[in-house]
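Researcher: Please translate sequence to structure tokens.
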Amino acid sequence: MTYPPAAPPARFGDYLELTKPRLSLLSVLTALVGYLTVRPAAGGARLGFVLLGTSLAAAGVAALNQWLEQDTDALMKRTADRPIPTGKVPDGSAFVLGTLMCIASLFLLFAKVNPLATLFTLLTIITYLGWYTPAKRWSTWSTEIGAIAGAFPPLIGWAAAEGSVTTLGWILFGVLFFWQIPHFMAVAWTYRRDYSAVHFPMLPVRDEAGGKVAAWSFANTVLLVGVSLLPWHYGLASAWYAAAAVGAGGWFLWRAGRFLRVEGRDVAARKLFFGSIIYLPIVLTALVLDRVIFS
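Model: Translation complete:
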């Protein structure tokens, strides 16, 4: 009797891939922005604990998300080569690793930072894994639910630096929330056939023509630009920052406007996605630099 060859032992790179390092990096960087917006010249141990705690939480959530979605990941072309569907990482190992990283993150932030930063981290974990991940299977609004989870990291950094969250912190939350809608709508439109294959009822799956997807992306981009100008409106940032936000926002609006056109919508979606990746660092860097120079 012959047996199928045993799967090779998982490598470090397989476990690293399980943590989605590029996506996790976004959470870490936005937490850093929240921290530096409060304390532009900050450094030291507290900042290190914030970055480490946020990194552990983001990596743990990514691993547990893949553990929860291993069945649908195996059916979609863009995710079929992930570590769990390919058998590179056993699903039990992914669950243990993800759980331990999330727990370690919460203990570290509570012991070395403060309870409020820990609370926002816990809310990120619960919202992403307990609400967004299952909502992808039954709700058209899953993208918006996911945007809530993705907007918490700046509040982690802000709470860590200040011990509370004031107006500018909530504005950062709004910027991250509204930015994610056109960003992920562009992704979902590009991979709509994959999502349709696993019956995710996302707007780009239900709206075959794409008009509603593009309109919703454009509307949220308008809101994003408006929210990005609130720091200047409330006197929390200078006209220099406002000029940067207007310039980047106008260009991003133009990209979202191109997505509205029926002709070439697939190409426009990809350009909107890459545009979103360029837009966010410009606005967040401008805000941090503004605080460094003028605070």
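Researcher: Any highlights?
Model: The chain is about 75% helix and 0% strand.
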